[in-house]
Amino acid sequence: MQMLNLTVAPALLLSALGLGTWALPGMGAGVRACVGIALVSMALMVGHSVAGLPLAPLAWGLFGLGLGGLWRCRPVPADLLHPLLVFTAAFSILVLVRGGVSYVPWGDDEFINWLTPAKQLFLARWQFAPHILFSNPSYPPAWPALLSLPSVLAGRFSQDMAGLVPFALHVAFLGLVFDIARSRLDRLSSWGFVLFALAVEISWRLLPLNLLSEQPQVYAESAVFLLLLWTAWAKGEERRGLLAAAGLMAAQGYLIKAAGIVAVPALALAAAWPLLSCWRDLRRRLAPAVFDMILLAAPVAAVYLIWARMAPGSSCSTSLGSYLSVKGIADLAVDRAGPLSEYVRAVAAYYGSYKVPLSVVALAGLGLGLARAASRAAILAVLAYFALYLGALFWSYQTCPVNFNYYLSSLERYILVPLRVLHAVGLMVLALELAPRLIRLRGYTALAGAAILLLAGWQAWRLSHDLAEIGLRDNGRAFAATGEAIVATEPALRRALANRPDKARVLQLAEFGYPYPHYPTRHYLLNSDGATLPFEYCLATGYGESIRFAGLDCPFPNLDQALARSDILWALSLTPALADAVRPFLAPACPADFSGTVLVRGGSGRFACPSP
To answer: Do 514 and 550 touch, CB atoms closer than 8 A?
Structure first.
């Protein structure tokens, strides 16, 4: 089954390339692939989440349109050397050599907000207007919908397939980066820039190691401003196509995460800059500026208005009304000197420790871009986005201090997004300024070729290492081990449940400091309705000498009462304290270590351990 995962990235990229060809046939392969992914996100949101069409036929229809567009674009031999195909081929070869690829999810957020919603969408793939209860129903739906897409097409849910979707999006973005560099530089230099950008991690690893939404957000927002930069030297139809692509990528950024809405004022600044910089020629410049504004802002405005009207539930952090209300403005304006100072110090401390040389180089590139009149609007837009993002994040902490958004929670993860956008644009400007001078140097071709081989070898080694990491999780073993224990013992649990005429009460035991096992348990054992579990669920976690009881479906105040009233004991892992608390309720024949087992209450009233 793992070999089937080999088809995920090629299928997604090729179908996205075909869809992008229908929209912008004259653009490079990377631009068309990124636009195709944006069109898929918009179609899934409008068709499934809003219009209520079943996801499965919608996905197959989009896939068919993509194949039709691919037939229409008629690739030329030069396309075989495009990063879109080269990275996908390298990935496929490594997967074949390894005998397959697997993805082990870990961490609360992966399950709560992304992987479990993707499974819920898969389970409802044939339903009209499905009523799915997501953890945060007002979140824009693109990311879980994209994660579910390979499983919907394959007809079975696979977290391994979902785990490769970020790679496909990253390769599409790198293809766009190559297209922009190629518009000014030769092929060798463009490849050198892409591999160097990967080496310094302007967009993190070639194979992302998690399913969090920040990485696809980085790809979308970076693409927006890189396309905007490209318009500085593009003319006529090409420029209009680039503006349209930037607008579609802005919509993609919002649909991935609501924070993408802060790109809109920055895009408005870029469109209005010709008017702001030269009032004397207002009449002649007004109509083109308005047209640019429509191309840039219309897609994201459309999806925002549709989703704001149709999104189920409400959420402070995803609603502009929460911030612009009287209360939201008051929250920001009153007595904020202390928190603001703390926020600024925290941001400065992290930025002062994360890839400082890269930030300095990127700022130098942005400075060069500001000095050029043609690129000034794009650079000002990037800087405006950076400032607006950081300001909106502080406002979010102040206005919406809900449980997952407590003050400065996940700060480093959030503030990396605008910094990486800054890195991508600044490095691109610097490369386009310096590369033409380097090309004229004697021996440049040999030196560049050697550097490309070295950087490509480094990426191949790292890709192989990361393929192993997403399947083993050496850096997140406690989280991964919990999920693996759930998967390993699930068959025994289902057999025990099948032997009961009524709905059983299951008490799960796990060595963990907080009720994390609840999230993978709910994910792996969801009923076909996508909302309920096949049993009543209690959880006891232990860490050191402490024991924590979470009565999720149990009306009991403590562990002893839950043990007395449970039908099945599901022991994933045990601390000595947790094992000692449970042992009086076990049959005498149970071994000292009964972790990794499912114990059913017997006729004696005690839990019987399975036979060895």
So the answer is: no
Instruction: Return the bridge partners of 543, or none.
Output: 546
Strands across the sheet with 597-601, in order? 546-550, 536-543, 505-511, 568-571, 597-601, 607-608
> 29 is written with which tokens?
């392969």
Kindly report, residue by residue over 384-407, the tens digit of the pLDDT: 999 999 999 988 888 776 655 567
CA distance 574 to 188: 56
Own/partner pairs, 155-161, CB within 8 angstroms, 24+ separation: 157/118, 157/119, 157/122, 157/123, 158/1, 158/4, 158/5, 159/103, 159/105, 159/115, 160/2, 160/5, 160/101, 160/102, 160/103, 161/4, 161/5, 161/8
- Ramachandran area for residue 345 (φ above 0: left; ψ -120 to 50: alpha; else beta): alpha
Top-confidence residue, 511 or 398 = 511
Which one-letter amino acid corresponds to residue 183?
A: S
The answer on pLDDT for 408 being more than 90 is no
State the Cα–Cα distance between residues 238 and 220, nearest whole angstrom: 20
Q: What is the secondary structure of 505-570 as a DSSP string?
A: EEEEEEE-SSSTTHHHHHHHT--TTSS--SSEEEEEEEETTEEEEE-SS---SSHHHHHHH-SEEE
Q: Is the pTM of this model over 0.90?
A: yes
Cα atoms found within 13 Å of the Cα of residue 575, Cβ hemisphere only: 16
3-class SS at 103?
A: coil
